[in-house]
Design a protein that fits this description.
The complex is a heterotrimer of chains A (about 290), B (about 400) and C (about 300). In chain A, about 60% of the residues are buried. In chain A, about 75% of the residues lie in helices and about 5% in strands. Chain A has helices at about 1-35, 40-55, 60-85, 95-115, 140-160, 165-175, 175-180, 185-210, 220-235, 240-260, 260-280, and strands at about 120, 130-135, 135-140, 215. The longest helix of chain A has about 35 residues, at about 1-35. Chain B is α/β, with parallel strands linked by helices. Chain B has 2 domains: about 25-160 and about 300-370, Response regulator (Rossmann fold, 3-Layer(aba) Sandwich); about 165-295 and about 385-400, Rossmann fold, CATH 3.40.50.2300. In chain B, about 45% of the residues lie in helices and about 20% in strands. Chain B contains 12 helices and 16 strands. A 6-stranded mixed beta sheet of chain B has the order 2-3-1-4-5-6, sandwiched between helices. In chain B, helix 2 (about 45-65) packs across helix 10 (about 300-310) and helix 11 packs across helix 12 (about 350-360). The mean pLDDT of chain B is about 90. Chain C has one domain (about 1-215). In chain C, about 70% of the residues lie in helices and about 0% in strands. Mean pLDDT of chain C is about 85; it is low at about 295-299. Classes of the chains: A mainly alpha (about 290), B alpha/beta (about 400), C mainly alpha (about 300). The interface between B and C is large, with 35 and 39 residues.
């Protein structure tokens, strides 16, 4: 009986954490969907945005710190587009792969340089309010992170479905040349995609910081890997896919850890990825107008 | 008359010039001590602090005249620190680079255990073994603390505390405390060699001193979710909980423990977490964390050394890691003088051998907290005490008999 | 002198790693699995010389063969996966290998103490080279002989029919299939060969460093592996060598005098190189693309 409770608790905790993975996954998949290129520095910029929001941590109340992180993420997203994507040839995905790797290394190193590698405290909200439902224990702050993540995702979907910008983004993703013929500026659309993904990323960075309690440059690389796994399982270019996949990966990760311990946990997460790739290579929700 | 005076002036000028050149030559004589360690990257703080401590020690020695070389002349100590970024290949490159310099007679470092192990591995195993083509260069380590590394080569010497000794003492003290300490639960960062190895020591010593080891929780060094592990800790409800992990995950676990309301009677931490990093990240949740350490500003020498480091660069302080680097410079000064190291480019290999032999022959060295013993396999027996996190600072909890 | 010889050793090892990625990249597959094969070669060769006292060359060959076999097996399922998904799948594979070695514990008692992989504590004591009195110069001769053999073989392969087939598959799979090229053979053979070369490089690395652990074989290593051929330009083998010398020799060791700025510049310089020479350092035409009003991202 105890084990079943533990199992369910693991899944619940994992699900709540999974919302942060979902946010990162959405960012990757958004950029891939529109530009068909991968931005490997995305998780690192998200963490950097969280660090930048620490500049105002003693001046403003906590919710504004999160907003600061989101805004910083947007600015950083625009910067990444300018430096790593704008001037590189469109038909050469490998060059942007490498330039974003360079950016990832540079950002990680910059953070370590400025903070001397020391972990920094990150404010969380609802830290002391934990909900106890019988034998189950739900962390208040994780629930808040989850809720905020959901709000961000809903806002994004509304943006994509209801606004002209969203329309342009979807059009460029499906048929860039036809979109240009209709008068949509590709450069503008690309910039806005990066900025939107950046806003999301900044939120994700802040949420991860709040969930863990401390920020450290160690966060960048694992979040990158998890984000990529989520993107692929969810289906490249599919936002609902990334959301569902993020929650699944979060829940399964904790489940595997509970069942087989921490040394083997990641092996099973990777194997789960392979299972998806073999049986459902398009991902959970194959993207519309699915290209390679 | 004028002639004579002119000649006298010329003579005096010439004499003064010769004397001046001689003086400047003597002032320019230097002996370099190199350092290897991580100065950038996530663990860059270790190398940065070591470098500052070594420079502080060198400037104290230089103020009182410098070191006396084998030919009686005095030389100033100069420190040059190479960054290995906690990367084995760069550590090996750094060692080879240093070993090929004609002014390199010894190096302090490395700071990362996963660099120290390969670097010691490429050293000559037994001095004088002509069939072994390993590098013949003495290394005197300040920070890399994974157990038993100096035994890998007779050119490797370390000034790091023996965690087996310290934790044994911790648990002996726990046994003597009033109140009931019967059970033990451990938490360990599994994928880092140092925390993993030390945890085995902690577990053994806990059991050897009468605590019932009920189990352990594990995590990886960049994990962010500790809810499962802390639930295990909570359920075990052990009196003593030990966390063998570095500051990032230690803070993560402590914060989760605060959330789930887990309050063991005694919390014990990993030696290298007794630094500002932990207090920066989670001073509130770390309250009461007890850690054995080989440095605290409790003696006159320790306080002066800490002040010297702060004076050199207020961004840095002194902790157990760079205190060892500080001590190493003074020990090396002794060895250089006792072994009559010549410090010339043509005597470089002989000097290295002298330093190695000198370090090997030491029975004890002078530490900031007292005398430091030296063992047969080139490790140190350092005086230690226990510190506890109180109100955002590390405060001395107990100084055991040693 | 010893320092330059030591530096040349690590450049040689990384050149082999880069060449292994070159093979795979040539057929259009971006694979982040080279680090995993490197790890396999390292552990296998290390265990051969340390535990079973095999001679060095045989141990290296064994490491390469085991890595090749694993690559062969992995190559088949990777046929169905393209593009970004392959990147992620191969990353996942590399991580699985790393975690396997993280858990691997195989200790054998000898007179000098226990040897063998010890889980997360790593695998130390791989002292074949110093114990047998190999000088830095001799080790270099060995490493660069291996590099030369691999370079020449790949060059010959590139100029032969196989090379043409690989390049065809790399440029456009559909077109290649339509002229009757067997995609499976091309891709799997490239994958297997790449795995073998990476395994060879890993075996040499284990003996160079004398101590290996799972942390050495993370994603960053695989990323470096593909960075070399991409930076150097896929159309030229010499480009990979140039890229390794640039990164290991210039960026990592040459910039030491810059102190703390070295690490910061590292990532920045990679971005800069990609901006000015996105198709690689040694790819024709030798013009600076950013000077050509590159509104390419806005097309």
């Amino acid at each position: 009986m105890l084990t079943l409770i533990d199992l369910t608790q693991s899944v619940i905790d994992g699900l709540l954490f999974g919302s942060t993975y979902a946010l990162i996954g959405i960012g990757f998949t958004l950029i891939f969907g529109v530009m068909h290129k991968i931005n490997l520095s995305y998780a690192a910029t998200s963490v950097a945005a969280a660090y930048l929001s620490l500049v105002v941590v003693n001046i403003v109340p906590t919710p504004l710190v999160y907003i600061a992180a989101a805004l910083a993420g947007g600015v950083l997203g625009w910067m990444i587009y300018l430096v790593c994507f704008r001037f590189l040839p469109i038909n050469n995905p490998r060059s942007t792969l490498l330039s974003t790797v360079g950016m990832l290394l540079a950002i990680e190193e910059f953070i370590s340089h400025v903070t001397h590698g020391m972990p920094l405290n990150y404010p969380a909200m609802f830290q002391d309010s934990n909900i106890e439902l019988g034998n189950f224990f739900i962390r208040g702050d994780l629930l808040f992170v989850f809720a905020l993540g959901c709000i961000a995702m809903v806002a994004l979907i509304q943006l994509l479905k209801r606004t002209r910008l969203g329309l342009a983004t979807r059009a460029v993703a499906q048929q860039p040349i036809a979109a240009q013929l209709c008068g949509m500026g590709i450069a503008t659309t690309n910039v806005s995609t990066f900025v939107i993904a950046g806003l999301l990323g900044g939120t994700a960075g802040a949420m991860t910081g709040a969930a863990v309690g401390v920020l450290s440059p160690l966060l960048a690389l694992p979040l990158t890997v998890k984000g990529l796994v989520v993107t692929v399982i969810g289906g490249l270019g599919s936002i609902p896919g990334a959301i569902v996949a993020g929650l699944i990966v979060g829940a399964c990760e904790n489940l595997f850890q509970f069942m087989r311990g921490v040394s083997e946990r990641d092996i099973y997460v990777m194997l789960m990825l392979f299972v998806f790739l073999v049986f459902r290579p398009g991902g959970l929700f194959a993207a519309p107008g699915g290209r390679d | 008359m004028k002639h004579k005076k002119l000649n006298k002036n010329k003579f005096m000028t010439a004499l003064l010039l010769v004397a001046a050149t001689g003086l400047t030559q003597a002032q320019e004589k230097t002996v370099k001590i190199y350092g290897i360690g991580a100065k950038t990257g996530v663990v860059g703080i270790f190398g940065q602090q070591s470098e500052v401590a070594m420079q502080a020690a060198a400037s104290i020695i230089n103020k009182s005249g410098g070191v006396t070389l084998g030919d009686g002349t005095k030389a100033k100590l100069v420190i040059e620190y190479l960054d290995d970024r906690c990367n084995p290949e760069e550590g090996i490159n750094a060692l080879r680079r240093i070993a090929s310099q004609p002014d390199a007679i010894v190096a302090v470092g490395p700071t990362c255990s996963n660099v120290a192990e390969p670097v010691f591995g490429i050293l000559q195993k037994k001095t004088g073994d002509a069939s072994d083509s390993g590098v013949q260069f003495p290394l005197y380590t300040d920070v890399a603390a994974k157990g038993g590394l100096a035994a890998m080569s007779q050119w490797a010497f370390r000034n790091v505390p023996s965690e087996a000794t310290m934790y044994k003492s911790v648990f002996e003290w726990v046994k003597s405390l009033p109140g009931e300490y019967k059970t033990f639960w451990g938490g360990v960062e599994k994928d880092f060699a140092h925390s993993n190895a030390t945890f085995n020591v902690i577990k053994t010593q806990a059991a050897a001193n009468g605590l019932e080891v009920k189990g352990q929780s594990e995590w990886l060094l960049n994990d962010i979710n500790f809810s499962n592990q802390v639930r295990e800790i909570k359920r075990a409800n052990a009196d003593v909980v030990a966390i063998s992990a570095h500051p990032f995950t230690t803070c993560g676990v402590l914060k989760e423990m605060a959330r789930q309301n887990v309050k063991p009677k005694l919390l014990i931490g990993l030696t290298s977490s007794s630094s500002m990093e932990t207090l920066n990240g989670c001073a509130q949740q770390a309250e009461g964390l007890l850690i054995p350490t080989s440095f605290a500003p409790v003696t006159e020498e320790a306080k002066k050394a800490a002040a010297a480091v702060q004076a050199l660069n207020p961004k840095y302080n002194m902790d157990l890691h760079n205190a060892a680097a500080f001590e190493n410079i003074f020990t090396l000064k002794e060895v250089i003088e006792k072994q009559k190291v010549m410090g010339r480019p043509d005597t470089v290999q002989a000097d290295r051998q002298k330093i190695r032999d000198g370090l090997a022959g030491l029975k004890q060295t002078q530490g900031l907290l007292g005398k430091v013993g030296r063992t047969e396999d080139r490790e140190a027996v350092k005086p230690y005490l226990f510190v506890q996190a109180k109100g955002g600072n590390w405060v001395v909890a107990h100084t055991p008999n040693q | 002198m010893d320092f330059y010889l030591g530096l040349a050793q690590i450049i040689g090892i990384h050149t082999l790693l880069g060449l292994s990625a070159w093979c795979v990249l040539h057929t259009g597959q971006v694979s982040l699995a080279q680090g995993g094969f490197f790890a396999i070669g390292a552990y296998v060769a290390g265990m051969m010389t340390t535990i079973w006292h095999w001679p060095l060359l045989l141990a290296l060959a064994m490491g390469a063969m085991v890595a090749c076999a694993v690559a062969f097996v992995v190559g088949f399922p990777s046929l169905r996966i393209k593009g970004l998904m392959l990147v992620v799948a191969t990353t996942a594979f590399s991580e699985i290998i790393r975690l396997f070695f993280f858990n691997l514990k195989y200790r054998v008692e000898t007179e000098g103490g226990a040897v063998g992989p010890d889980g997360s504590l790593g695998f130390g004591g791989i002292r074949y080279l110093p114990t047998h009195g190999w000088s830095t110069f001799e080790v270099n001769v060995l490493i660069w002989a291996l590099v030369a053999v691999v370079l020449l073989s790949l060059w010959a392969l590139d100029r032969s029919r196989v090379g043409t087939l690989w390049r065809a598959v790399g440029e456009d799979e559909l077109a290649a299939q339509s002229v009757g090229i067997n995609l499976t053979t091309a891709k799997v053979s490239a994958f297997a060969l790449g795995g073998a070369i990476a395994g060879l490089a890993g075996g040499v690395y284990a003996h160079y460093a004398t101590h290996i652990e799972h942390g050495n074989f993370g994603i960053l290593l695989s990323t470096f592996a593909i960075a070399y051929p991409i930076l150097g330009g896929l159309s030229s083998l010499a480009g990979t060598l140039l890229a390794v010398v640039f990164i290991q020799g210039f960026l990592l060791e040459g910039l030491r005098f810059m102190g703390d700025w070295r690490s910061l510049l590292f990532g920045v310089l990679i971005v800069v190189v990609m901006l000015v020479r996105p198709n690689g350092l040694l790819t024709r035409p030798f013009k600076l693309s950013i000077l050509h009003k590159g509104r390419a991202g806005a097309e």
